[in-house]
Amino acid sequence: MKNIVLACSAGMSTSLLVSKMEEIATEKGLDVRIWAVAQDKVVKEMEQADVLLIGPQMRFLKKKLSKAAEELNVPIDVIDPIAYGRIDGEAVLTTALEMLEGNK
Amino acid sequence: MNGKFMEMLENFLLPIADKLNNNRYLSALRDGFMVALPLIIFGSIFVVIANFPFLDKMISEEAYTAYQNALGPASAATLSIMGMFVIVGIGYKLTEHYEGEAIYGGVVALAAFLILTPQVLEGVSGVIPTASLGAEGMFLGIFTAFISAELYHFFVKKDWTIKMPAGVPGAVSRSFSALIPITLTLSVFLVIRILFSYTNFETLQNFIYTIIQQPLTELGSGLPATIIAVLLIQLFWFFGLHGQIIVNSVFDPIWYALNDQNLSAFQAGNELPNIVTKQFVDSFLVGMGGSGMTLAVIILIFIIGRSRQLKELGKLGAPAGIFNVNEPIIFGLPIIMNPLIIIPWLVAPVVVTVITYVAMATGLVPPPAGVIVPWTTPVILNGFLATGNAWQGGVLQAFNLLVVIAIWWPFLKIMDKSYYEKEKKAETKKST
């Protein structure tokens, strides 16, 4: 089971993306858990995460979160704005899985 | 606008966003308001229910008064004294940031604030005026929470402990570990209170209110400051950065204080003193599909959209847009870094701000009543609730929506046309 966390300001817009990603994951039969969190809860939720993706509108969080992410060995990146705008669950899921792969 | 200039602007804005968002005081302030928000909304719901339209004409005056009195404590215990909850939230979050015992940081901040608060009202002692715990005490509370959390952290770090004679169990001496930092921190605030009692201001609350809060809120309630805030929010979003998160941490204390003044006046049945409040911004600017009022853009796509790209986007963005979540539009249209779009993106919110301000200043539409409406409330209902159940508030939002549609029309038309032609070209290429 892989845990993918998406972070944005209130966890609202990323939760849209989460449901798309879940759809794709079920289609492909992947064993993943994906959820969205608000920015003030990110650090706590990161402990359970295998990969952390940040909404592009909150990309200034990356610097702050990188340190904690490094300690927990959680790969972290900002979601591609175009994929984000299209709520392209497949593209974001692929990125997340690639990041996981690269972190092994 | 060329690419170099855009790059320069982004390089200028990103560090600002980074600084403002990651500043520990501003983050604690923002999170502190987040702590208070559920309580604020609880109180707001009961203000709305207590002031149902036409109810005062349907039942007897006595029954109406009894009804209002029965519901009154809901908002009196939350919305009207929101300063208290914000202070606990700030103290908690700041102490958490220092990895201290956050709950102590929260209650120390509250106690420090209460030490500085007037404890007498019109000659009656042993009371705390609720006004001091709401709007009037907001700024003092915020500063107190910052300083008390810092002092508490400082004294904890010093690790002064009471030396217990040998044989005293360790648990006993540890129980004093929070005692010393708390005692020292609160003593500092007691000294401040005593010192201020010898000045003309009598209390620090009075001092902060007169010297800092009043001038700032007066400035913040004006049209120019509001337009600047709105433009900044839009500009940050134009670069794909969350404008509200960044700008609101500076403006929220002012906007909430103004909001609270209106609430007190609304509940007392007096004339509402302010036009610009938290809800002015949240309902009339954000509450129309999200920042930049993009519900208008979605509607416009349904009216004039011919290109597949925009039609798809409209379908994708509409369900979220109704609840004022608009990242699909911002990143999908795209609005970010789109030189064509920057004109309606900056102009429309300013025009709406001015229209709304004028409509309220001239009395056509009642100003916001001080209730906090969740920002995900759909348009029209949102304006109705924000103005204290006034239908004019909903109508104004509908009118503003039309204005935004008109401003966007030519720009979206150009965009749609270029997408459409591109799609057609791609199709003919495929078929040949």
Structure description:
The complex is a heterodimer of chains A (104) and B (432). Chain A has 104 residues and is α/β, with parallel strands linked by helices. Chain A has 5 helices and 4 strands. Chain A has a single domain, classed as Rossmann fold (3-Layer(aba) Sandwich), CATH 3.40.50. In chain A, helix 3 links the parallel strand 3 and strand 4. The relative contact order of chain A is 0.22. With 432 residues, chain B is mostly helical. Chain B folds into 2 domains: 236 residues, no CATH class; 142 residues, no CATH class. Chain B has 20 helices and 2 strands. The mean pLDDT of chain B is 87. Classes of the chains: A alpha/beta (104), B mainly alpha (432). The interface between A and B is medium-sized, with 22 and 31 residues. Chain A: It comes from Virgibacillus massiliensis. Chain A: Keywords: Kinase, Phosphoprotein, Phosphotransferase system, Sugar transport, Transferase, Transport.
What's the number of structural domains of chain B? 2
Output the radius of gyration of chain B.
25 Å
User: How much strand content do the residues of chain A show?
Assistant: 15-25%
What is the average of the pLDDT values of chain A? 84
Question: What is the string of helix and strand elements of chain B?
Answer: HHHHHHEEHHHHHHHHHHHHHH
Low-confidence stretches of chain A: none
Largest sheet strand order of chain B:
1-2
Task: Tell me the number of helical segments of chain B per DSSP (H or I, 4 or more residues long).
Answer: 20
Our measurement of the CA-to-CA distance between the termini of chain A, rounded to an integer number of angstroms, reads 14 Å
Give the quaternary arrangement of the chains: heterodimer
Largest sheet of chain B: 2 strands, antiparallel
Question: How much helix is in the residues of chain A?
Answer: 40-55%
Protein name (chain A): Oligo-beta-mannoside-specific phosphotransferase enzyme IIB component
Modified residues (Phosphocysteine) (chain A): 8
Keywords (chain A): Kinase, Phosphoprotein, Phosphotransferase system, Sugar transport, Transferase, Transport
Pfam families (chain A): PTS_IIB (PF02302)
